[in-house]
Design a protein that fits this description.
Structural class: alpha/beta
Oligomer: single chain
Helix content: 25-40%
Number of strands: 9
Largest sheet: 6 strands, mixed
Radius of gyration: 16 Å
Length: about 170
């Protein structure tokens, strides 16, 4: 089974982060590492991550980077060891077959390098909200193909590690 690196950036949302990490650790595909990028966290977020007694969970406690912390995300991506890279944020949930389904598609289709999957979000009041972006909807697909509205978020994509060699970080 190929190894998957899950990049999970966060900033001061420990309750949501725990839900996100739990969903990663509940994956059917267990050969993974969860790289939590604490982007200038000033609360007990780092403690939440460090309380996991799982060798697949890694905490990177970094000073706040500008904006949404992309510099820290890219820094931690260099630490990823997986054949595949998956993305999520602290307010996402992965259903249990998220990684295994994506990997199955990538391994069956040699010409594909990236897979998009619908994601679930958790609001601050802990309500689960599905992503409304679905390429199966003809109107959304037409908008996407015509580049009028690309609403695919990185937090629901998985790609081959080799994409970094071809396109950079």
């Amino acid at each position: 089974m190929p190894k998957v690196s899950v990049l999970l950036p966060t900033h001061n949302a420990p309750e949501l982060l725990k839900i996100a990490i739990d969903s990663v650790l509940a994956q059917e595909h267990e050969n993974l590492e969860c790289l939590v990028v604490c982007d200038g966290c000033t609360d007990h977020t780092v403690e939440v991550v460090n309380n996991y007694n799982d060798p697949r969970v890694f905490c990177f406690d970094l000073p706040k980077a500008p904006g949404f912390g992309y510099a820290n995300r890219n820094r931690v991506l260099h630490e990823a060891t997986g054949d595949y890279i998956a993305y999520m944020t602290h307010d996402n949930i992965m259903v249990t077959d998220h990684l295994s389904t994506a990997i199955e598609v990538l391994e069956q289709e040699d010409q594909l390098d990236i897979v998009f999957m619908r994601s679930l979000y958790v609001s601050r009041d802990l309500t689960i909200v599905p992503n409304t972006f679905a390429l199966g909807d003809p109107n959304i697909l037409a908008d996407f193909l015509e580049s009028r509205r690309n609403r695919i978020h990185s937090d629901c994509t998985i790609h081959r590690r080799c994409c970094f060699d071809r396109f950079g970080y």
